[in-house]
């Protein structure tokens, strides 16, 4: 079974036309991979579908805009995947 | 349908919030300045307005689902197919089905029919955001009444 990182990296690669080898656990989706907000909608839709979750993008964006957390917390691949795992676990519980 | 005012939906005939489905009706006007250019002596409803008609129909479901706390802004149009010409005077039935209700966005599948035939379809992606102005929200609520969205769905909004 593919890891969360493999699945998400595959989605980003396919959705945003980014070579898979450029996507690393420490890549920031926006700052390093250059995914803009419109493309991120496609990514979010594909992730929501693939994992059967609803990523709380509005809350994450608000947290970042209000300076509560760094955008790394949500948009670095490793952290993004960790958040996805938490959402999947919470849904299963 | 008032093309010059971008009022594409005449009446919402069915709105099923829990089922994620909306159906609406519109009649293409016999006359409109739009037809002077599209096209001279061969008037047909522009394809972009077919897409807009599906988008507005889906938008009514999203606004109602979110109790008019969020405005729906069209962000993407995918896989749009314009299958047939639509002439002035035609009656249209429009359906939009919720594909996914995401956080701050939603995806809907739209269909447009005339004379029982599918004339257009598209997948529509919306951004959902707080109303940028209270006056816009008030105008949208009034427009919702104008297209006959049931009052009980507007109560509390």
Account of the protein in words:
The complex is a heterodimer of chains A (93) and B (157). Chain A is mostly helical and 93 residues long. In chain A, 61% of the residues lie in helices and 0% in strands. Chain A has helices at residues 4-16, 37-51, 57-65, 72-75, 77-92. In chain A, helix 1 (4-16) packs across helix 5. Chain A is globular. Chain A starts with a helix and ends with a helix. The model of chain A has no long low-confidence stretch (mean pLDDT 94). Chain B is of the alpha+beta class and 157 residues long. Chain B contains four helices and six strands; from the N terminus they run ββααββββαα. Chain B has helices at 34-37, 47-65, 134-146, 151-154; strands spanning 11-16, 21-27, 71-82, 91-101, 105-114, 117-129. A six-stranded antiparallel beta sheet of chain B has the order 1-2-4-5-6-3, covered by helices on one side. In chain B, strand 4 and strand 5 (105-114) form a beta hairpin. The model of chain B has no long low-confidence stretch (mean pLDDT 96).
Question: Secondary-structure blueprint of this entry?
Answer:
The complex is a heterodimer of chains A (93) and B (157).
Chain A: H1 4-16, H2 37-51, H3 57-65, H4 72-75, H5 77-92
Helix pairs in contact in A: 1-2, 1-5
Chain B: E1 11-16, E2 21-27, H1 34-37, H2 47-65, E3 71-82, E4 91-101, E5 105-114, E6 117-129, H3 134-146, H4 151-154
Antiparallel strand pairs in B: 1-2, 2-4, 3-6, 4-5, 5-6
Sum this structure up briefly.
The complex is a heterodimer of chains A (93) and B (157). Chain A is mainly alpha-helical and 93 residues long.
The percent range for helix content of chain B is: 25-40%
Molecular shape of chain B? globular
The assigned structural class of chain B equals alpha+beta
Low-confidence region ranges of chain B: none
How many helices of chain B in DSSP terms?
4
* Radius of gyration of chain B over all CA atoms, rounded: 15 Å
How far is the N terminus from the C terminus of chain B?
25 Å
**Largest sheet features of chain B:** 6 strands, antiparallel
The total count of helices of chain A amounts to: 5
Low confidence ranges of chain A: none
Provide the succession of SSEs of chain B: EEHHEEEEHH
Number of separate strands of chain A:
0
Chain pair forming the biggest interface: A-B, 14 and 11 residues
Kindly state the number of beta strands of chain B: 6
What is the ordering of alpha helices and beta strands of chain A?
HHHHH
Approximate strand percentage of chain B: 35-45%
């Amino acid at each position: 079974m593919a890891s969360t990182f493999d699945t998400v990296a595959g989605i980003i690669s396919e959705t945003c036309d980014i070579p898979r080898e450029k996507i690393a656990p420490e890549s920031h989706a926006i700052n390093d991979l250059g995914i803009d907000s419109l493309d991120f909608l496609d990514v979010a839709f594909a992730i929501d579908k693939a994992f059967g979750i609803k990523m709380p993008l509005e809350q994450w964006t608000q947290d970042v805009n209000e300076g509560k957390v760094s955008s790394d917390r949500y948009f670095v691949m490793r952290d993004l995947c960790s958040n996805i795992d938490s959402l999947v676990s919470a849904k299963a519980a | 349908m008032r093309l010059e005012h971008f009022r594409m939906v005449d009446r919402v005939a069915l709105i099923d919030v829990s089922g994620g489905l909306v159906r609406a009706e519109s009649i293409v006007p016999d006359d409109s300045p739009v037809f002077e250019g599209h096209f001279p002596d061969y008037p047909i409803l522009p394809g972009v307005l077919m897409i807009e008609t599906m988008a507005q129909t889906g938008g009514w479901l999203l606004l109602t689902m979110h109790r008019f706390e969020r405005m729906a802004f069209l962000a993407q149009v995918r896989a749009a197919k314009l299958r047939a010409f639509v002439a002035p005077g035609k009656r249209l039935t429009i359906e939009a089905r919720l594909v996914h209700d995401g956080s701050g966005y939603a995806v809907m599948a739209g269909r447009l029919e005339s004379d029982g035939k599918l004339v257009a379809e598209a997948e529509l992606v919306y951004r959902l955001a707080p109303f940028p102005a209270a006056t816009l929200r008030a105008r949208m609520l009034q427009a919702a009444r104008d297209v006959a969205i049931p009052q009980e769905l507007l109560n509390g909004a």
